[in-house]
User: What shape does this take?
Amino acid sequence: MAVTVTKLLKPLIPASVLSRCSNPASLLFNHKPSFRSSAAAKMATTSTSEADIKPTPSKVKIIDSHLHVWASPEEAADKFPYFPGQEPTLPGHVDFLLQCMEEASVDGALIVQPINHKFDHSLVTSVLKKYPSKFVGCCLANPAEDVIGIKQLEQLILKDGFRAVRFNPYLWPSGQQMTNEVGKAMFSKAGELGVPVGFMCMKGLNLHISEIEELCTEFPSTTVLLDHLAFCKPPSNDEESLAFSNLLKLSRFPQVYVKFSALFRVSRMPFPYQDLSSPLSQVVSSFGANRVMWGSDFPYVVPECGYKGGREAASLIANEVPLSPSELEWIMGGTIMQLFQD
Assistant: This one.
């Protein structure tokens, strides 16, 4: 899209601030976040009715809170190799992503380090450096039993500019939990550095709820992102009802946010996934729209409904709830922008 950064930010940032800023792009994404500022803390604890005001910024952009990029086969052969055994079966290179985002009128995104490159963050780092006003990076925590994971986390945040970290519990050593010594050290360090921790509970929230609750209780200054509705499908049995109830109860921790993302993964229906209207309604009622954010899960969404379809599905589901226009603005961009602004 042939739009300058300054023009993009005019609806978002006061002219007096823009005029004093030598690098306007930094006002959108490219600066150190401060998640526990008084304004953010106030927003994190407001009820849904209080959040049903025009968000700050007053006119938000569409920001995708969850997607991946990986090297093209040519890039992998040249300088960004895939992790052995994790070669992708879908195209996920950045040029394809940018094309999809333009077609869907999505303005920015949080890139989550893909398992295809595992702990080699060089490809995502190169994308972040090339498009600093468009993308924010979420690195992948290395839970090795030595201290290398903490050192890597500090380097990725402080040197390479990543702004979040993902905890994948299935990468922990066998028999270990995310609440072990290494997990707690990394979770605490994330809070100290001011970056949120995303949890990927692919095998079910019930398996990990006690770990998440323990970490949130012990380290209340660390912001938490629950990927893909914490992998809670619309409940159809007692176990799924318990998982969804556990998700809603996490709203008692003001640092916890929910990604309404990868809708095709958590729905039991085809596009536009309208069985998610009730779960979305309950999540917004419990957390407030200003603690919920839409995400596509590109490129996996592409063969399911297309990238643009993934964005449209969120709006169609919101209309079924129904959500107010300002609540939808929070979910489609306001929440994640608030998290990544000072």
About this structure: The chain has 16 helices and eight strands.
